[in-house]
Amino acid sequence: MGNITIKQLNFAYPGQEPLFTDCQLAIDGSWKLGLLGRNGRGKTTLMKILMGQLDYQGWVASNLPFAYFPQAVTDPTAFAWDNLSAGTPQLEEWQVERELNLMGVDPVLLWQPFATLSGGEQTKVLLAALFAQPGVFPLLDEPTNHLDTRGRQEVAAYLRAKHQGFIITSHDQAFLDRLIDHTLVIERHQLVLERGNYSTYFAQKKRRNQTAIATNDRLHADIQRLHAAKQQRLQWPQRAEGEKRHNAHADKGFIGAKAAKMMKKSQTMAHRLDQVAAAKTGLLQEVETVAPLTTNQQSSYHQTLLTLEQVGITLPGRQVFTDLSLTVKQGECVLLTGDNGSGKSTLIKAILGQPVGQVSGTITLAHGTTVSLVRQHYTDQRGSLTAYAHRNHLPVDQLLNTLKKLGMERASFTTPLDQLSMGQQKKVELARSLLTPAQLYIWDEPLNYLDTYNQGQLIQLIQTAHPAMLIIEHDQHFIAEVATKRVTI
46, 52, 199, 234 — which has fewest CB within 10 A? Predict the structure, then answer.
């Protein structure tokens, strides 16, 4: 397998701050490389540069035949196999079936309309088609999105067993720890390449941050001392002038000359102190920080906000689930879990009163309860952030402030919503939910596309504010931190 060599890479989208400035990098094609970094830092952009889809300045050289996940699906209503073969004509059906078998997936999925597959099934089919191509070097962009817990374990085992390298991005820390052997992190002003998995990088990053914070504290103290010394020096000539005013018998000419001399000397020393302070300011190291999030949670006189009693849902041709009962009370965070296709998102539609087929049992939303939703899919995001805020009855300044807390760069605030990265679009969806007045929050896979800093913010918010929530999520770390109750379909 070949290598990837990058020298003096520079790239910026029109009208935005540079994502890469004079970057140098050497990647071995045999590595299972985790590509990490905050949303909007350029992970997908770097993959597009490797694929030759973006113009850049610098030098990128590789003999690797890159292949990108997720592949485009041209006709979701057609069979999965027809979509795969249309995108890669040289693909053989048996090759894809082999990869599906390695993942423990029934190849019969190939002969179902692609749109009827669950999100996890679609992911596995596309991964199988990618790895069925001999000799390609995969660039895997967020393959864990829409995978359930078991699916993530199966895909992690599948990728770990591969005797080939790839580059992968994911928001799931445990998933990455199972399979990557190197990490490439796009930090604010540098690329950091290290050997080891996510936990290894994070531990080293934590140590670097602690060292940087200690250094910054010392530098800040030095800078304050220098500024105090500057002010003291600038007071010298003022003291001499005071002596001249208050001493009637003194030699005015001598004191005036002394004051002028001291003025010149004090200005020279103040300038030198400014230079030293500026040099120390330049040594200050930037440490990644996150601001706490808030919700527009409204009070309710109901103790129980949502009740499901022996609920079942039947779609044409199949029973999705039956006899599901749960409650969501004030202060509870209920995690709804289950395999892909078990009906979790369908249940949310039923709770919201949307048509989903035949519903049995009883769904009771407490009178007057307003719901704030985070959706899996938000293709209706269009136009500017200002127009989006007006459509959703949100204060523009609060929307922008929440997005800034979520790590979205100000330069992105003028970018049309449909041109934002998937992570940035998810932040817009999440910010809308946080700002919407509500007694109950229903979030469908909120961590998809969000970086680990954002995950930490959400964990802190839920642990601090204790909003009433029903959440669908598969990230085990997140579930362990926030769930007060788990219900499995």
Answer: 52
Which pLDDT belongs to residue 256?
54
Distance CA 485, CA 489 (A): 13
User: What single DSSP character describes residue 410?
Assistant: G
Q: What pLDDT, on a 0 to 100 scale, did the predictor assign at position 248?
A: 52
CB neighbourhood size of 119 (10 A): 19
Q: Which of 307, 433, 302, 309 is nearest to 368 (CA)?
A: 302
Q: What does DSSP assign to residue 293?
A: P
- How far apart CA 217 and CA 415 sit, in angstroms, is 37
Q: Which tokens sit at 448?
A: 């998809």
Task: Give 413-453 as a 3 state SS string.
Answer: HHCCHHHCCHHHHHHHHHHHHHHCCECEEEEECCCCCCCHH
Tokens 């817009």 -> residue: 428
Distance CA 94, CA 83 (A): 15
**What distance in Å separates the CA atoms of residue 164 and residue 131, rounded to the nearest whole number?**
10
Q: How many helices (H) and strands (E) does the chain have?
A: 15, 17
Phi–psi pair at 2, nearest 5 degrees: -85, -160
Decide: 371 and 442 in contact? Cβ < 8 Å. yes
- State the DSSP string of 106-169: -GGGGGSBGGGS-HHHHHHHHHHHHHTSTT-EEEEESTTTT--HHHHHHHHHHHHT-SS-EEEE
465 closest CA partner among 257, 207, 301, 292: 292
pLDDT for position 18: 87
CB atoms within 10 A of CB 260: 12
For 51, the token pair is 């694929």
Quote the DSSP letter at residue 378: -
Q: CA 31 to CA 174: how far, in whole Å?
A: 18
Q: Tell me the C-alpha distance between 405 and 204, whole Å.
A: 24
What is the pTM for the complete model shown? 0.71
Q: Are strands 358-365 and 468-472 parallel, antiparallel or unpaired?
A: unpaired
* pLDDT at res. 94: 96
In the DSSP assignment, the letter for residue 171 is S
Contact between residue 139 and residue 129 where contact means Cβ atoms under 8 Å apart: no
Residues of the chain short of pLDDT 50, as ranges, are 250, 252
Q: What does the angle CA 217 – CA 223 – CA 225 come to, to the nearest 5 degrees? A: 105
- Under DSSP, is residue 10 helix (H, G, I), strand (E, B) or coil? strand
pLDDT at position 147 is 87
pLDDT in tens, 57-97: 999 999 999 999 999 999 999 999 999 999 999 999 999 99
